Amino acid sequence: MHPCSRRQWLKTAAAATGAAFTDPLIRRASSAPTQPVAVARCMSYGPELVPTLDQLFDQLGGLGRIVKGKTVAMKVNLTGAPSYRLGYLPCEDTHYTHPSVIAATCHLMTKAGARRIRLLESPWSTADPIEEYILQANWEPRDILTAGDNVEFENTNFLGNAKKYTRMKVPFGGYMFPAFDLNHSYNDCDVFVSLAKMKEHATAGITLSMKNCFGLTPATIYGAGAGIDEPSILPKGGRSLVHSGYRQPSKSAPSELHPDSPRADNYRVPRTIVDLVSARPIDLAIVEGIKTMTGGEGPWVREKMIGVNPGVLVAGTNCVNTDAVCMSIMGFDPMADRGTPPFERCDSTLKLAEAAGLGTRDLSKIEVAGIPVKQVMFDFAKIRRERRARG
Amino acid sequence: MLSLLQATPIRHLLVDSAVPGLADAAGRAGLAVVEPQTLPHGVTLVKGPWPGIRVSHAGGDRAAAGPTGEPWVDSNGWRIKAARAQHPEGPVWVDAKPQPSRSSKEDYTLAFADAAAHGAQWIIALDDELAAGVVAKKPEAIATWQRIVQAAAFFATDPAGYNDQAVIGVLSSFAGPRAFTDEVLNNLARTRQQYQALACQSINDASLAGLKGIIYTDAAEPPANVRKLVLDFVNSGGMLITGAAWGSLPKGEAQQSHPRFLVRKSGNGAIAVGATFSDPYRVPNDAVVLVSHRHDIVRFFNSGAITPCLARSADKRRTTLHTVFYSLRPVEDTSVWVKGSYRAARIRTCAQPQPQNIKLQTRDAGMEIHLPAVAQYAMIELES
Questions:
Q1: Alpha-carbon gap: B366 to the closest alpha carbon of chain A (Å)
Q2: What is the 3-state secondary structure (H, E, C) of chain B?
């Protein structure tokens, strides 16, 4: 027999609903938007890649409706120095967005009518051109630059080609920051795309289309060597400032909302990510999991990591929905909260994003186009359990 | 004690001042005694620090970091290259005395490797404790000495007649104040780009072969013959990186394509002139980007603190890549990419002196090699 009567349940539910609607974040979560997410099987970076991506975008209603006649800014993931590999594996087979996926996406965007495509990243501790950075990973920049029309790179780890940084406000007010001072490229575009790699993450549990945007922040303001009053001229080091909160960004940029909040990366990083993707909304989220790695976001993580070949591509126009589907493909529950894999020691970026009204993480509300999740599932969660059980 | 030197590759005894009877005894043992002021003809002596990862002044065993956050490596490579540029005909000997805090047998191997990789020979010098132990014939000290002798034999077999391969040259008269030139060389070595020193007095067409860029570091205009040679190099596709001291520039509009340099086209190449050309850290780092990593001839992955030196035989059929690994522990999972096409590769290390075949994989315009765990030094021999 049920422990409470129907009348009692209705009373409890009404009270809970009322309480929820008194909290604006929970109110936003309950109405968080949902958009279809497309999933495709793609085992290699060979000839199957372009048609598979093309079909993936068709399943979202076609790339043309998103990029035609537009300037597209696309954030890729080139985390860590290009000379740092997982074993003998090239960076693109483990932790960098693969150059073939970048080139194929540029090609399809041009075909769909994109006016201009700007490839953005804030690479490790340098203001050198991205072309010079990727050459050191044994990539050929021309393969990407000639894959579409008007394709260019910009290093967003510093002021870059602009005269000043662009201030981008967090519409819901922000968990950590009310606004960010970013390289102009994140504002000077009609469409913003996050082209991420499917990975676990040592601090944030997972890194998908939202976590990829942590790299929007220029190290000249948010990095270890950031200027105190004004941004430094050149970036130096990583974003330890945001991770640990040992100091504020350069005074020229908005400072933290709650300087008395925990100085812990597992609290700060997920919240900062949500602030960033709210300030710079993602119009198209693409997550590449053709080849990747388990155990973390790069070879520096202190886990037993391996290169893997899940053979999956995921895309969606809502980043929270897209990341939720990706989590499911990885064998994790997107509804997981702190304390549950992959968020054993951190807050869930997805839960925080949902609460901020950016999108739902509830799979029952997300339409999945293309191949069903079960057919492309690659069980990162199981590998994680087994790895940790071994110690 | 001279018996310790018998049947070793050691041929000279360098003494601070003459010791009565030593020369005769050494002569009987097949050794020549020399003093710093009477070095064998043609030998250039380079004085430098004990090579290795610099230990923090704060104490303990923490490595000191450089401006990039990477460990700060003391290497005599750039000093050797500068000496060889000025004295191209004779051998270079390196006088680097051991630091008592860094005197393991691995440190001694590093001293040999740091000199040999750059084309010089280290003058064996023992720290006081080891020297006393050897004199007292303590087993541990004798074992270390034998390791040193083995290393001397290993590095003595380095084949001569190879030419350094480089992407960037640093051009100077090496006369007058040299602090800027020296620091540019020092910091250029830390970028891992292949480089060489060029002396105005001996520069010729052959010494520019293969280079893609030249940094001119002197504070005065170059001699007319040097200017012509460098401008010919630029017009045929090279890049000159310099400051206002270079003097007159070709006509034509300069472009601000780099935040700290105005770049002017000249023939098939370009001249990049720095608005301020005085930062010996930024100049070499900017030069590497101005010239472009597109022209890299060696790229390392997962190597830790290293200096790689590529050299090629005169007939271009054999190439050697000497690499010094400054970590005292073995480095694992290291890959190296070398531009060009090769049909075979072999590796020699101090632990494995006999050449071992190693697999080559074609990667873009070069070949990639996955190294086994390696400590202090590796020489990869590539056959075209």
A1: 10
A2: CHHHHCCCCCCEEECCCCCCCHHHHHHHCCCEEECHHHCCCCCEEEECCCCEECECCCCCCCECECCCCCECEECCHHHHHHHHHHCCCCCEEEECCCECCECCHHHHHHHHHHHHHCCCEECCCCCHHHHHHHHCCCHHHHHHHHHHHHHHHHHHCCCCCEEECCCEEEEECCCCCCHHHHHHHHHHHHCCCCEEEEECCCCCCHHHCCCCEEEECCCCCCCHHHHHHHHHHHHCCCEEEECHHHCCCCCCCEEEEECCEEEEEECCEEEEEECCCCCCCHHHHHHHHHHCHHHCCEEEECCCCEEEEEEEECCCCEEEEEEEECCCCCECCCEEEEECCCCEEEEEECCCCCCEECCCEEECCEEEEECCCECCEEEEEEEC
